[in-house]
Protein 1
Amino acid sequence: MTFKVNIQYFAMLRDAAGKSAEQVTISAGETASSLYYRLAETYGFKLPKENIRVAINEEFSDFNAELKDQDRLVFIPPVAGG
Amino acid sequence: MTSNTFSVCFSDTKISAAAARDLFLIPDDCGGLACFEGIVRNHNHGKAVSHISYEAYETLARKECERIIAEVTKLWPIKKLYINHRIGTLAIGDTAVIIFAASHHRKEAFLGCQYVIDELKKRVPIWKKEFYVDGSHDWTYCQENHHH
């Protein structure tokens, strides 16, 4: 069974992906972690997973979280506000 | 957050601490106001900076600022707080962030204000791109967040 998740890219991840958002097909049981590895390979993300956080549906979440259909994901590179 | 007491803003045009201060009415029971302004400086890591830009994941940035406000008001009796962070392009000397913290006494106001900016820098999903005089540009990392 496949689902779709919606990803928003910011900062250097957006630069690498060449887009600010996309919808991606995932398989049941896929985690944010495995999805990140897939995208990192596709787009050549230079940031290792250890250096980013993940937000799912507008909340900080866990890379081991199992993704659900229509989840909204943002991978968050090291922040630099202030 | 748009209540008068605890206010979080992201502004895509120039902000002024003086103008914000005029609108920030101090509650009658507060005797101390601590203000922080983060300002764009002309250098970073030995490189000359020409200008910068900020972007934010705004929904989560707002939530995280609100969490920081909830924490700081539990730590100290901060009665009123204002956070305003720029997004978009900024010139050297522009104000990047304004924080006002009002409390009964100065000790808590200072501590609260510092807590808010320190936590904002570590946690809030805002990113800064620096453009250098030599034509290059780079995404910057807050030193405390740099894990390498």
Protein 2
Amino acid sequence: MNPFSKVAIVGIGETKVGKIPGTSVTQLQAEATRLALEDCGIAKDEVDGVFSFAGYSRPATLYSAQVSEYLGVKPVINAQIEAGGVVTALMALFNAASAVASGLCHVALCTFAENPTSRQKSGGRHEVPMAYQRGAEEFEEPFGAVSMPICYALIAQRHMHEYGTTSQQLGAVAVSTRKHACLNPTAVMRTTITLEDHQSSRMIASPLRLLDCCLTTDGGTALIITSADRAKDLRRIPISILGFGMQTTHRIVMQAPDIRDLGIKEAGQRAFAMAGLTLADVDVAEIYDAFTICTIIGLESLGFCGEGEGGAYAAEGRLELGNKTPVNTHGGLLSHAHCGGSFHITEAIKQLRGECGPRQVKDAKVALVAGHGGVFSTCGAMFLGRGLP
Amino acid sequence: MTEHPTGKPLPQPFNDSKTYWQGCQRHELLIPRCLNCGKYFFYPRQFCPTCMSPSLEWVKSGGLGRVYSFSVVYTPFGDAYGPEDVPYIVAIIELKEGVRLMSNIVDCRPEEVRVDMPVEVVFDDVTSEVTLPKFRPATPGRPGR
């Protein structure tokens, strides 16, 4: 039973990515919105639902009202959505699709942007008073776990212990993902890398090296969602939401369950069930790759390979275009841009529309966007389909 | 919050975690346990995260456990960590009581740390008000505290 059968994604907007100093998150979202509206030909005054996230710059209240105000939009339904990593973008899309499906609005906008280059430096680590209990600050940061690479390194080290995953296999993920970025004119990193480059890149927090880590970039995206009926009159191939699933197990890494119990497996299974699909039906997958280990765990959890076999899968080059269900065809977080994984969604849509040029997956009809936020804390998976159901 | 001598983050004990940090100051590793369902849990909460009972007790842990995972940090992050601080070892320790907590491995060369390595707690009096529990390789034959 698919609750989104009468909904379609009809427009996308992508700003350029990289270093865009002197821009605000609001400006980036507004620009992405302008592009998305141009893409579908819907007038701005028709937008009546807004789901956005302010990025990680600083805690922001009423952010969906802020971006609405900047755009001159008065939504009948809106909220700032945050669930971590790519789950933020997936949840914004879920909320937008639900609002349209339930008849609460007609044209919904999802927009996400980040601007770390221009981020104003906060006065201290605890810019807002610690009004709520934050486990990481009390039980992790005093021990030097003060950044995301360290938290993911703990996951990677455990994966290596349990399954014999090697640093070279992590490197294979980096190399394959960079190959895809080299085919994408908008990607930030477009120089080919070799396994030797990966192995000689400096160690950040063992076992993760520099080339195991995602980029930090400015940029943003926007999606326009409306009814399937309306979609028939518009210029682009409409994109359907075929299935969705989410699962959260923890927030901070010391509270994470064992690797085999991470939520991405459940989220994927629920999305597959809603869509009535198996992996054999999926033409392309965009898996949130904050670090190379994330792609490997994603592959295992989503059924590309068995438990613990993700490293070997990557080492065989099976992530790459030309293989069944290639992964991160735009270059991912590792080589294209960060932007909260929102470009994983726009890339999936472009693949389904046939707009990817040299990195196009032939005749792509079904795309998977999956991944997580935090340290595999929140997890989500969504299937998108070409055309209306 | 008390100031760390080099500005590093320190825990700010707050209602349900005060007892834990006070225990550390006395060089005791106290782990909360539910009197209703009997499960240990960590980090401290107002009630049991398994059964929601507010009937809790604090149990003095033997301080023994194993390394569940670790990472040797080579690149300093943030304002408080500089080149003089690295490498340091962050680890998730699984205590014999079955709970996991984050800490540092000390008295051990980075290349000697292994997942599953037995460890024992030691206490680092970082300031006059804050003591952090850390872990060193367990000495076979040394009785737990």
